[in-house]
Amino acid sequence: MKHFLLTVLIIMTAYSIVNAQTLKGRITNQSGDPVQYSTIYIQELKQGTTSNTKGDYEIRLPAGKYAVVYQSLGYQPVYYNVTLSAGITVKDVILPMQYYEIPEVRISATGEDPAYSIMRKAIGMAPYYLNNISSYKAEVYLKGNLVINKIPKLLQKSMKIESSDNKTSVSAGSKPKTEEKLLKAGDSFLMESFNKIEFTAPDKYIQNMISYNSTFPSQGNEISPMDFIQASFYQPVLADMAISPLAPNAFSHYNYKYQGASLQGNFTINKIQVIPKRKSQQLFEGTIYIIENLWCLQSVDLTNENLFGKIRIQQLYIPVQDEIWMPVSHKFEINIGIIGFKADAGYVSSVKYVEVNPNISLLKPAGISAGFDTRSAKQQKDSYTTVSKPNQKIDKILEKDKLSNRDMVKLARLMKKESAASVHDSVSNSLEIKDHTKQTIEKDANKRDSAYWADIRPIPLSDIELRSLRIKDSIKSIKPLKDVKTDSLASVNTKEKSKFFKTIRTIVSGHTWSDTTGTRFSFSGLIDIKKLSFNPVDGFIYGFDFPFSKTWKSGNSFNLIPDIRWAFSREKMNWGINTFYSFNKIKHSQIFIRTGITSKDINTGGGINPFINTLTSLLQKKNYLKLYESRYLTLGYSSEIVNGLRLEINTTFEDRRVLQNTTDFSIIKYSRMYSDNTPENEYLAPGSNEINALRDQRHADLLARFSFTPHQQYRINKGVKIPASSDWPTFELTWQHGINEFSEFSPGLRRSDMFRFEASKSRSIGAFSNFRWRIRSAGYLDNRNLTFYDFFQINTQPLPLLINNYEDAFLLPSFYSMSTPEFYVEGHLKYTTPYLLLKLLPVLSNTLMRENISFSYFGSRFHPFYFEIGYSISEIFFLGELGVYAGFDDLKYKSVGLKITLRFK
Fold first, then answer.
1. By the 8 A CB rule, do 831 and 852 touch?
2. SS3 content of the chain, % helix, strand, coil (to 5)
3. What is the pLDDT of residues 673-710, one digit of tens each?
4. How far is CA 150 from CA 126, 376, 714, in A?
5. What DSSP state is assigned to residue 675?
């Protein structure tokens, strides 16, 4: 049987070799210059290839007759009927220039550029073309290259290439001799792969990498074409990089100019110049080609300039089946220029569609056709009456010669709705989001020889790429100088010193120990500036922590986090232990215990950043942080009950003690004293209710919190449930029963019941735009026996400099001033967009900063109608936000403030 199979395999191999003919040649323009990266497409096989930088092309095909299309951007397509028999067929092709004319019918009486009429229909139809494919199978060849043009000397000295001497004989068991060379300008690298791709709507991709080849020094250069295959200009944002000219809001970001039309076969191609309204890293510039009456892309030639350089994207679409146009070639040119480093990188791909299945559930609009409708009037009428009402509305819009902006938005919305409905039947109603992208690599995919690549490679290599392949074996890896080990001998004394200094470094800077059993222990070190702080109650505070964790194979884990700090002026040890046991990776169940003795901020709803308070205390002698001593024990349990519904129950026992300032120290001397360790608040002012005052007391409470997100989607990764998005807000309901005991006034226990409700939602509403809101309301059934500790602590941040982001905070009132025992309502809105006001200015338009508008409202007994409005610019150097805010009390202006926020998390 084995001999029989071997014989069959040999016969089949020989047959395939005999029948694999070669079509090759060179593509030039009328001046004789090579047309780089031209597309050669075989209509019968739905297969294409691309010429190289010299215009050379080569493709292997079975014997037969083929209709071959040669085309490139800026040139007229050329069609040839080619008959292939045994051997090599040479076909050199000259592509004539493509000229575009502006027909009189396109000239508008209103003076509007004809491009806008075309773009309105193309934008409106974008959701249709994004979803009109049910599935396809394709073979994709992807080739990338990198040529280094310039390396700053400082960077060049920090990187080396380890190359082997292939001429040196190597004995068995020994390693080849290697030498290190500096990476230099002129070095080039190549990587290529051959892949089989299967796509099933809406998001299932299976990639099988058959082979890959790389001359890059770093190991594991596996080229994945998934980003190329998945990205589409029909999406509002392309690969999270820039806004597409076909996005629903494209008219807010782009101007368009009609460059003319050209007849290519049976199709009229409109050439549209895309002009960004402002210089921006989030916009494209260039040309797109739209097919008349189909309103889909025929080709794309767009450029995006960003922080790392210039990226030029070229795509060519071909009707692979009926009027289904799909990209058969991709070309990326990347001019890298950052911090003096300059290089040219490029990617080209050749796609062969083996099978394409249209989305039959998505009805094609009646007005979408590049040809004439040959049906009878009755057939057209019968077909029209069977379509849904949304499709009838779509057809009526497309019947118009010219669309308004309102028509465009309505068309895009209807097409998006119909497209979503067409894939709904194929998608399970389950809320689980499954990762439908599967990547596999064939065994020995990186061990194919040169003969294999010469036979399978559809795009001939350039001279630079060939030179890179010839030196492939000599390039091993790139390593920073600090990782390169020398062969110098070290003495025993040196090793002992190294061991001693390593121990000292561990004690001083900290270290983490872990093993393969899931045990992990960390020590933060004796010197950690993040552990140092100052306030006039404790004085300087410094300490360390040493967390311990154990994770079992089941995924259950135990964590013990002790924290010890010494308050130097108060001469008191602050300590805390946080321990929790996590189990059930689907429900994220957890049992936790927290205990300790520490000085704690009275404002549990936000409060000042300890680092900022340290600076204001030491440099300005202004202490904003108000503390009390808490001796606490908290026991709790949390778990998901059903999907989207989570419950937390905990009980706390606390001994609260009033603290006073113990030091008047500051680096810069002032005559004034630190303010008392008492918050400034109307309820603590002289003459107010004495029960509200701060005092020593014992406290206990029982808390239950329900959090519910309807239709909560989720992912399962290695058995762990990860919450994802939902179209619904998140609702939260909290009940807390509190018991206070203090000796003043009438003896006995003082009870209270608190209820709090809130709802919040954050969602993307466009390209790089977001809208977030939160409303919260709370109150006590009886607030007559509350001390200030149990007030509703509202997050206020009045200082001009903030560390990390404070969401849902009031940015003008002083600390603790809005704390209240009364029923209250607060709300926060924030709209974020890349372009609103200042980003429209030329000096700022090319940055990645975003603009924000915010509104906050608060209403209670002493603040019946307080609100803030603000404007800010965020992502300044990727970590800063600058804003101005104004506050109003009872519709009367109260204050204004400038805020700088630094985000390090």
1. yes
2. 20, 45, 35
3. 999 999 999 999 888 888 888 999 999 999 999 999 99
4. 41, 66, 46
5. P
- In 725-743, which positions are buried (b, 16+ CB within 10 angstroms) versus exposed (e)? ebeebbbbebebebebebe
Encoded amino acid at 453, one letter = W
Q: How far apart are CA 149 and CA 184, in angstroms?
A: 8
Per the CB < 8 A criterion, the answer to whether 651 and 634 are in contact is yes
Question: Which residues 6+ apart lie within 8 Å of 421 measured at CB?
Answer: 361
- Give the DSSP H or E segment for 187: none
What is the SS3 assignment for 516?
coil
**Cβ–Cβ contacts within 10 Å for residue 387, how many?**
16
DSSP element (H, E) containing 63 = none
Any residues with CB less than 8 A from the CB of 828 and at least 6 apart, and which? 772, 773, 774, 775, 807, 808, 854, 855, 856, 857
Computed from CA positions of residues 257, 262, 263, 264, in that sequence, does the dihedral angle turn out positive or negative?
Answer: negative
Residues 6+ apart with CB under 8 A from 110: none
**Own/partner pairs, 587-591, CB within 8 angstroms, 24+ separation:** 587/639, 587/640, 587/641, 587/721, 588/638, 588/639, 588/640, 588/721, 589/637, 589/638, 589/639, 589/640, 590/637, 590/638, 590/639, 591/636, 591/637
C-alpha separations of 601 from 111, 145, 695, 702, 738 in Å: 66, 57, 15, 21, 19
Give the C-alpha distances (Å, rounded to integers) separating 365 from 368, 376, 398, 892: 6, 17, 8, 55
pLDDT at 577: 97
pLDDT > 70 fraction of the chain, expressed in percent and rounded: 85
Which of 651, 678, 519, 509 is CA-nearest to residue 594? 651
CA distances from 160 to 181, 183, 878 (A): 6, 6, 31
Q: Label residue 417 by pLDDT band (50, 70, 90).
A: confident
C-alpha 298/C-alpha 282 separation (Å) is 23
* Dist CA 799 CA 807 (whole Å): 15
- Strand, helix or coil for residue 188: strand
Neighbouring residues of 14: CB distance < 8 A, sequence distance ≥ 6: none
∠ CA(856), CA(857), CA(862), 5° rounding? 135
Q: Is the pLDDT of residue 750 over 80?
A: yes
Burial class (CB in 10 A: 0-12, 13-18, 19+), 410: middle
Dihedral sign computed on CA atoms, order 395, 396, 400, 404: negative
Name the nearest CA neighbour of 75 among 262, 260, 256.
262
Judged against a pLDDT cut of 70, whether residue 180 lies above it is answered with: no
**174: which 2 tokens?**
């020994």
d(CA 723, CA 715): 6
HEC-encoded secondary structure of 426-473: CCCCCCECCCCEEEEECCCCCCCCHHHHHHHCCCCCCHHHHHHHHCHH
How many Cα atoms within 13 Å fall on the side-chain side of residue 809? Answer: 23
Distances in whole angstroms, Cα of residue 218 to Cα of each of 157, 472, 477: 18, 12, 5
**Is residue 181 over pLDDT 80?**
no
Within 13 Å of residue 131, how many CA atoms lie on the same side as its CB? 22
Convert the pLDDT of each residue in 139-176 to its tens digit.
888 888 888 888 877 666 665 555 444 334 333 344 44
The rounded distance, in Å, linking the Cα atoms of 820 and 355 is 67
| Residues 901, 854: Cα–Cα separation, whole Å | 15
874: which strand partners? 850
CA distance between the termini of the chain: 65
Tokens of 140: 């994709």
105 alpha-carbon distance from chain centroid:
44
In terms of phi and psi (left: phi > 0; alpha: psi -120 to 50; beta: otherwise), the region of 607 is left
Q: What are phi and psi of 861, to 5 degrees?
A: -60, -50
Partners of 148 in the beta sheet? 343
pLDDT for 213-256, tens place per residue? 888 765 444 445 456 556 789 988 887 788 999 998 899 899 99
